[in-house]
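WARN no homologs supplied; continuing
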Amino acid sequence: MKPLEDLAVYDDADFYDQEFAARTHDIPFFLGQAVRADGPVLEVACGTGRITLPIARAGVEITGLDIMPSMLARARQRAEDERLPVEWLEQDCRDIRSDRRFALVFSATRCSTCTTWTPWSRSSPRLEAC
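OK structure emitted
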């Protein structure tokens, strides 16, 4: 598999949080979709949990997946601080490995590198938004 390029900008969780601090307009959309999915949800390229955590706060069973350890460390800490039951997967979105089936699989970041979806996700609805 070809290595992903230009990931350095995503290695700095502080910078990422500052860049996305004002971006909240999409949270209600994804939260609503997650609640309506009525089952486990997977957020691909979840970053520091900007959308994953509000979904978990609503009581939805959610898994966050990201390739960047620094992003997941921040997301894990936030979930632990709030005692939110979130599963975190450190994986490349082009090769997702999970035995779980998800009612909804989505990426809020339109991660264009996520082009290969494993069979368990093909039957699940996928949402992507700007």
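Residues 64 and 88 are 5 Å apart (CA to CA).
OK
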